Amino acid sequence: MIAFENLGFNYGGGELLSDVTLRLAPGSFHFLTGPSGAGKSTFLKLAYAELRPTAGRVSIFDRDARMMTRDDVALCRRRIGVVHQDCQFLDHLPVATNVTLPLTVANRKGNPQDLTALLDWVGLGKLADALPPQLSGGERQRAALARAIIMSPDVILADEPTGNLDWDMSLRLLTLLVELSRMGKTILVATHDMNLIRQAKSQLAARVLRIQNRRVQLAGADL
Ligand SMILES: Nc1ncnc2c1ncn2[C@@H]1O[C@H](COP(=O)(O)OP(=O)(O)OP(=O)(O)O)[C@@H](O)[C@H]1O
């Protein structure tokens, strides 16, 4: 679904990622770990063509990211839902409008029943008309997840989605990701939270990628 072949990346200085070869197979669930500044957010950005590799290749849905035009990138982004580290909303618009923004941008009309079901599923049914500044951290992350999946993407990339959440809220978010995985979505979650990873591994066959010395490698079973 998304494949990295001998990928290298730098922002203009020294190499940040080097010789990365791996594949996110359809329906797989991966965590991405590594020290702060190792390049986790960068790796996610390469996976959704926000950044282009400086060496090697990234294929997204079998297309070489370097060859993609802006329109190609826009089309492929419809199949990839991204939950950003610092989820931003339009604060003057209600949660429901924020969640449906990707549909608006794509000029697609959503079904109001689907929106209600989605907001209920993430536990925000009663907050559809609230404004983003009124949401708690956990509610914001769940709104961000709802927005990321409103287009029914095949792939979900989440950057530290539980970074500022307490354990109960983290578990709630994890449950949603596990359910999405069971629906067949391909999922990659960057996180520092080893407890979250252990919890996920008790529920499904999640694999752990670790960035170390500029390489991204599969971690062993010992966490
Ligand atoms: N646009 C940019 N231009 C130049 N350097 C950047 C840019 N974005 C990130 N970096 C640098 O690249 C390195 C990796 O950053 P990145 O955000 O990918 O790390 P991370 O592993 O996600 O970190 P954290 O866990 O702290 O979020 C850092 O040293 C960062 O300062």
Automatic annotation (TrEMBL):
Q: Which PROSITE patterns match?
A: ABC_TRANSPORTER_1, ABC_TRANSPORTER_2
- Domain spans labelled ABC transporter: 2-223
Q: Which InterPro entries match?
A: AAA+_ATPase, ABC_transporter-like_ATP-bd, ABC_transporter-like_CS, ABC_transpr_LolD-like, P-loop_NTPase
**Quick one: a GO cellular component term?**
plasma membrane
GO MF annotation list: ATP binding; ATP hydrolysis activity; transmembrane transporter activity
Keyword list, A-Z: ATP-binding, Nucleotide-binding
Q: What is this protein called?
A: ATP-binding cassette domain-containing protein
